[in-house]
Prior knowledge:
Number of helices: 18
Shape: globular
Number of strands: 17
Oligomer: single chain
Helix content: 40-55%
Distance between the termini: 26 Å
Strand content: 15-25%
Structural class: alpha/beta
Strand order of the largest sheet: 5-4-1-6-7-8-11-10-9
Amino acid sequence: xxxxxxxxxxxxxxxxxxxxxxxxxxxxxxxxxxxxxxxxxxxxxxxxxxxxxxxxxxxxxxxxxxxxxxxxxxxxxxxxxxxxxxxxxxxxxxxxxxxxxxxxxxxxxxxxxxxxxxxxxxxxxxxxxxxxxxxxxxxxxxxxxxxxxxxxxxxxxxxxxxxxxxxxxxxxxxxxxxxxxxxxxxxxxxxxxxxxxxxxxxxxxxxxxxxxxxxxxxxxxxxxxxxxxxxxxxxxxxxxxxxxxxxxxxxxxxxxxxxxxxxxxxxxxxxxxxxxxxxxxxxxxxxxxxxxxxxxxxxxxxxxxxxxxxxxxxxxxxxxxxxxxxxxxxxxxxxxxxxxxxxxxxxxxxxxxxxxxxxxxxxxxxxxxxxxxxxxxxxxxxxxxxxxxxxxxxxxxxxxxxxxxxxxxxxxxxxxxxxxxxxxxxxxxxxxxxxxxxxxxxxxxxxxxxxxxxxxxxxxxxxxxxxxxxxxxxx
Length: 475
């Protein structure tokens, strides 16, 4: 069923809700996970935008099959305007795990162990065909749902081919693509097979506007277009094959008021009380991440270990709350990384814990209210990715803990906006990170508050609703 008033649409792999199927066949709906969903959900829903996403689980697929045309809002669910696509599981698996997360993510985050990987053979060719089919399913759904002249905002590395495919189907539409990840420089992007690299770039250039989180990532994309396509790059635009795509930088921020309201709800207050009882009056170093390879959790734990070794005066006086939620466990590299995080945490416990002091609390269960409680209690927030498109944790923390010292990797996109008021580190330098943790704990209260106010202002400069509106205005 097509809604004729779909004048603005958003497309992303993950949607604003997910469904769980119980043993007795009952469906339970909950908030979707991930930074993109956190950033967009409120703005998209409030503005009456149709969101098109994929069914990720058996629960999602069950919900879709009960909804007319996959429109969950037409099936009575309180989702806002939402169409969920039931893409065949095998196609989805190859597109999502083998290409999006094991190839494009690895390229743009510079994660490959290049003496050993990648290697692109006939298996990858089949996987790329599935990625193309997956993007095609989104393009067809958007073409079906969009009213004449509608504006369509396609999100992230899962859907790099969708803009060009959609333009072929519906040349009347105004199309934007936004990359929430970093973008690789040409010499690294060229690890991709030549035809695949060209298809990715030309897919995004099917859009009228291509958006990035920082100048650095936008410049890298334009460099790839110049080097690999021979495109003309000038005045923040790329001209290729007779079309011009404008390039924009839109640093997604946080809705501070909404975040504070959620962080003051009873479930968060309850977690705060439990954490205070567990930790006592000790100072808190907090990190909140998925166990994603780029998040650099192991080096963060090693830095905390170096800190404890170099500063015995802090023994018994500080606790590291490390929330590392399992991610992408369909991929062996991620399962091993989660195990490495747990091994490193146990080594710290074995070496430093005493009868009355637990120096490290590692939580591997995804618990959003508990994360918000940790933000509010943090004295130091550690954000040390080896490469990150933005990192909303770096922005959320200073909002909920105005006196928190932020230790921030220079390789996070957020460093472009927050670096002047944070303790900026080289994420590979464990000793430097350890000393930054110490500096954060020792920082005078007046300086904490002054830095915190500036971090807050920067973090809320472009909240999701304005971020969305800014890009729609570019169309």
